[in-house]
Automatic annotation (TrEMBL):
<keyword id="KW-0460">Magnesium</keyword>
<feature type="binding site">
    <location>
        <position position="262"/>
    </location>
    <ligand>
        <name>NAD(+)</name>
    </ligand>
</feature>
<keyword id="KW-0227">DNA damage</keyword>
<keyword id="KW-0234">DNA repair</keyword>
<feature type="binding site">
    <location>
        <begin position="69"/>
        <end position="70"/>
    </location>
    <ligand>
        <name>NAD(+)</name>
    </ligand>
</feature>
<dbReference type="InterPro" id="IPR013839">
    <property type="entry name" value="DNAligase_adenylation"/>
</dbReference>
<dbReference type="Pfam" id="PF01653">
    <property type="entry name" value="DNA_ligase_aden"/>
</dbReference>
<feature type="binding site">
    <location>
        <position position="354"/>
    </location>
    <ligand>
        <name>Zn(2+)</name>
    </ligand>
</feature>
<dbReference type="InterPro" id="IPR004150">
    <property type="entry name" value="NAD_DNA_ligase_OB"/>
</dbReference>
<dbReference type="InterPro" id="IPR001679">
    <property type="entry name" value="DNA_ligase"/>
</dbReference>
<dbReference type="GO" id="GO:0006281">
    <property type="term" value="P:DNA repair"/>
</dbReference>
<comment type="similarity">
    <text>Belongs to the NAD-dependent DNA ligase family. LigA subfamily.</text>
</comment>
<dbReference type="InterPro" id="IPR001357">
    <property type="entry name" value="BRCT_dom"/>
</dbReference>
<keyword id="KW-0464">Manganese</keyword>
<feature type="binding site">
    <location>
        <begin position="27"/>
        <end position="31"/>
    </location>
    <ligand>
        <name>NAD(+)</name>
    </ligand>
</feature>
<dbReference type="Pfam" id="PF03120">
    <property type="entry name" value="OB_DNA_ligase"/>
</dbReference>
<dbReference type="InterPro" id="IPR013840">
    <property type="entry name" value="DNAligase_N"/>
</dbReference>
Amino acid sequence: MNDIERLVDELKRLNAAYRNGEPLVSDAEYDEKVEALRAMNPAHPYLGAVEPETFNGKGKVRHPVPMLSTEKAYKIEDLERFVNRVDKAALEIGLSSVNYQVMAKLDGLAGRDDGTEFATRGNGFEGYEISSALAKGVIPVGGRGKGLGEIVMSLSYFEENLKDHFEHPRNMVVGIITSDVLNEHAQKALEDKAVRFVPYSELNKWTGSGPEMIASMDAIREEVLGGIDYPVDGLVAEVTDEALRTHMGATSHHHRWQIAIKTRGESAVTTVESVTWQVGRTGKVTPVMEVSPVKVSGATIRRVTAHNLERLRSESVGPGAEIEIIRSGEVIPKLEKVLTPSEEVSIPETCPVCDAPLEEDDKFLLCVNPMCSAKAEQRIVHWFKTLGSADWFGKKTVQKLVEKGYDTLEKIYKLKAVEFQALGFGPVQSENLYNALGISRTEPVEDWRFLAAFGVRSLGKSEARNLLSVFPLTELIEKTGDEILAADIRGFKGAKCENIGTGLAVVRETIRHMLDLGFQLEVTPLASEVAESASDSPLSGKGVVFTGKMVRGSREEMQEMARKLGAVVQSSVSGKTDFLVCGANVGAKKVEKAREKGVEVIDEDRFYELVS
Ligand SMILES: NC(=O)c1ccc[n+]([C@@H]2O[C@H](COP(=O)([O-])OP(=O)(O)OC[C@H]3O[C@@H](n4cnc5c(N)ncnc54)[C@H](O)[C@@H]3O)[C@@H](O)[C@H]2O)c1
Ligand SMILES: [Zn+2]
């Protein structure tokens, strides 16, 4: 692959992520790469088409007129060249003076509303039908049928309610439009009428000549962006004369009579007042600088995220440091430069959420405590991995669920196949996910594995096993660290008991909830009961599997009996199985397989004989 192909590949990947509301890089970074491609090959087809969006599970509609992208001016010279081109075209049709209008370039999801059809841009020619968005509560500003516009979220609403949960309102808007199941934040934003379709025709506009526009760009910016409460990534300037528009026409990428005016972002100098630390869903602990309030492109900035720990340390960013911040279309401003370093830089040693000791990756601080409430994702992955259902609920899947607000087992276990589909999973995968949840509940599972799956610190599989041979599960989860310590169990000392006690308290309700869902638990026999009766039983220390429909009593009762006699009740036949107890309707194949492994196959009657 050559450099150009590699770059285009990367752009395609970044674009797909961005269109799905999950950008991997900042817009400025993406734009830089686009300009790099333009420098290498200005005629590259990637630059000549609208960057496409792909939304699964939505109907497609053809646009009567293609919905295009915009040409971009980064410098005033780019704008001057545009005005010159327009002037030339005007002369060709005998127009002596050209009038322009300038308005905000809204940073949301482009849409077209003709009064009946409501559609996204899609690939420019064909978009996705999203009338469902209006039913969900997206407000059409100025009413229906106003043509092209942008679906956006109120910026003040976002900053007040959502800034700590989501990186950019645009990502939330995409999520709201594309998924049928909404997380609580999205639901609330819709109820609060914060998500709106703003037709471009409704925007506040400056009008004037080309030279005026060039001469007073700053004042124009103030005028049209001043009162706006939506995320903006520049301005749009366009010719107003219909005849000139028609004469100039369009490329496959943009209208020749329209241009976006982008700025590298406004910067400001401020002072760091304090540094606070936030824990992300993967346990990454990032510093947030609380700064003296400062106005940057119309917004008052009070907090700046510093993503890199090393930078904080090497450039000494702490209270008192003077820094330059930049805000380029992004809602959340970035640290650009350290002008005066701080005297004191303190890096925390324990997690600000759970207080566990932090570890340091090469660039980041990490909370590795799986119980840390900030780490829903890791906890859910651990659950499915420990239960053995990780084939379905792998990292990617869980990440997607958590991002859409399904961040607890309680919420995930409620999902039906259609709901998985609405979250963006394919129909087959959705069916599989739903079935996998069912299987995890109905397949027998050892209680110690079930307990270990909650990921309580210091409570792995072997600890769970040991503890459950002393306390039954329902009793154990009520215990404090001190009570566990007091039971004087070998290997359970101070810190371990404390971790287990605190951890259990955190997940107690979740454990109860999962128990209520009816998991098929194979109960670990209590050491006391085993000791009493097991020594001379024929089942003592033997591996026993029950299969088929039991006629004389319930399977659970039989398992309980076997355990009391010292048997190890297993869920399936393995090399360690001694007896396979068959109820009704057991396939000949299963029996044959067990026999091949040297397992003694017995029926219910024989089982009762053995235990009597
Ligand atoms: N961060 C990333 O990874 C990433 C990836 C891809 C694209 N992007 C960003 O997306 C943008 C390019 O994509 P694009 O082609 O969708 O947008 P564009 O910047 O080329 O502009 C065209 C779009 O502007 C919108 N618009 C907003 N206000 C408007 C107004 N008043 N009048 C007319 N149009 C208006 C319309 O949706 C139109 O489709 C760039 O800003 C780029 O940084 C970012
Ligand atoms: Zn933590």
